[in-house]
Design a protein that fits this description.
The chain contains 3 helices and 21 strands. By secondary structure, it is an alpha+beta fold. A hairpin with a 4-residue loop joins strand 5 and strand 6. The relative contact order is 0.14.
Length: 325
Amino acid sequence: MGEILLLALLVGGLVEVATADSSNCVEGCSLLRLHGLAHSLQRGSTPLYFWAPETVDLWLDAPGITGFGYVGIDKIHKWHEITFTHEAAQGENCTSVPTLLPKKVCGSSSYMYLHSNRPGFWALNCPSTPCECPDMTIDKCKSSSETATRCGSHGMDAIRIPLDEASTWYWWPGYTDEIKLYFPQHVDHIAVTPNSYQMKQWNDFTIVQGTVSYNGTQKPTCSIVSRSLNIFATCTKEVNRDSDLFLKTFSGGRHMISYWAPKCLPRSPIVDIAQPAEENSKSTVETHSATGILLYVNLVMISACLIPGLISVCILARWSKERML
């Protein structure tokens, strides 16, 4: 009897420990399916998390910095933490991926470009390991009750969006003055300079999938469309599972952070943008459409409150007039 009780206590302890460990994860993190992104190293030390749905190569690149890690079969289908620190003594910014890279990668660059040869899932603005299980093609995730969050805005210097599926993204230029688009096309890239109106709004980017007949065989192709930026470009080179739309943003020819929102416009109409001259200063900008909507709602609410009162005043005035007659 004592042995049974001891076993029950041990099992109970193990269950409790397992529950405590799983409770350390964070729900509601923003998950993005990307080939890669450029993360600013001047925006705090919030980590990134990377999930590989298959074996992939992972690179960390910046001017004068290179790191490489292979995500083998034993490391897929799990989250890997990527941390960023500042080494004050050396004046360097360092990036660490303890589960994938043998040592941290350091340099003086203000950003780190992280990318893989196949699309993976990236968790942003997440203070700890995400609870979400993003790959619904495996049993581990099919049984998960957590749902990935894909709305919200994210500050990045560059972004690589896979072309193997249709998607829509929104871009807020902030203080950038140029965006360059790289995708399967015979020209090197397309450069766009937003005008003063486009600088102060969310601009759409839509990836449209299609097929083209080549020697009697249907091959995949794609188009990049932006109504707000007047872009309609067609992929003129072969499109496959490794293809992506690589977008870089600049200010005065230098890498500059801008904001990206997948699938839906951010709920909040107000976004804080870091000014290029002073990294720590903030400027608040507001979307015109959101402002108009809020103003319209307020007018409707005010009207709803005033109309009953006006009707009452009219009825009272008419009644008073009839009594006087």
